[in-house]
Amino acid sequence: MALHVTPEELESVEEIERNVSKHLSVVNDIFSWEKEVIASKSGHEEGSVLCSSVQVMAAEAEIETAAAKRVLWSMCREWERRHTELEAAMKKQKPKPSEAILTYVKGLEYQISGNEQWSETTKRYVGLQEEIAA
Fold this sequence. Notes:
Blueprint: H1 7-12, H2 14-42, H3 53-61, H4 65-91, H5 99-121, H6 128-133
């Protein structure tokens, strides 16, 4: 795909990129939580410190990790809604955004959904909940 966007166009979508980045990071944290817990119990002391939005949410809200994941999923759905709003606002801008930047923003949307779908189905994360319980 030959997609050419200018630095100015990329600058114009920084808010959209930040929104997408939050979604990608949190989805990864939700799905990788069990893997990280296992690693923290079996890895080297210095490299096995848990650092995850799941842990932060649970600690700050004083809730269990399962509840923290539910809250984080709600936040992800809000970031998806926000992406749609930001994209719609961008399409109304004058002058009209180029097809290249519109395609780029649509690609970010696909990245969100693809990341979630991959995380739900990859052997990297599937079945780890049961491994922790064992």
